[in-house]
Design brief:
Biased composition (Acidic residues): 124-133
Oligomer: single chain
Distance between the termini: 33 Å
Helix content: 40-55%
Number of helices: 6
Largest sheet: 5 strands, mixed
Biased composition (Low complexity): 135-152
Strand content: 15-25%
Protein name: Anti-sigma factor antagonist
Domain STAS: 4-113
Family: Belongs to the anti-sigma-factor antagonist family.
Shape: globular
Strand order of the largest sheet: 1-2-3-4-5
Length: 152
């Protein structure tokens, strides 16, 4: 098992978060916390670089779903970049590949992102557990209908 490495940086008004290793039950909470910190530091236009992510289970999917909900509620956006075949398969099985923006490069994610709604470049004022990426296990359960809805 390879531990999850998470790095973040600003890039042309976006928050680029690079994931390397395995995203699963043991590492999902770490990513949830790191995404919250990255959004506070760099804003709600988020690009997740998945090129070096080797595995993702349902807990990882839940973190991504909750991040998507949080950033869009804040007027921002989320794009996924270069998922490997095993990660793509998880997105495909759940139907998330039809609901989320998935592109090949960080530059493509930046170029194709929608313009921010009011205040999207700013860090969120407050975070609440309901539907946010801080929501913990309850949000994992709430995420299931979103994933199922995308597959119909």
């Amino acid at each position: 098992m390879q531990p999850l490495e998470v790095t973040s940086r600003p890039h042309d008004g976006f928050t680029v978060v690079r994931l390397r290793g395995e995203l699963d039950i043991a590492t999902a909470e770490e990513l949830r916390l790191r995404l919250r910190l990255a959004r506070r530091e760099h804003g709600d236009r988020v690009v997740l670089d998945l090129a070096e992510l080797e595995f993702m289970d349902s807990h990882g999917l839940s973190v991504i779903i909750n991040c998507y909900r949080s950033v869009t509620e804040a007027g921002g956006s989320l794009a996924l970049v270069a998922p490997r075949p095993i990660v793509w398969r998880a997105l495909e099985i759940t139907g998330l590949h039809q609901r989320l923006t998935i592109v090949g490069t960080v530059d493509e994610a930046v170029a194709t992102a929608p313009e921010p709604a009011g205040g999207a470049g700013e860090a969120p004022e407050s975070e609440t557990p309901e539907g946010g990426e801080d929501a913990g296990p309850a949000a994992d359960q709430a995420a299931a209908p979103v994933a199922a809805a995308g597959s119909t």
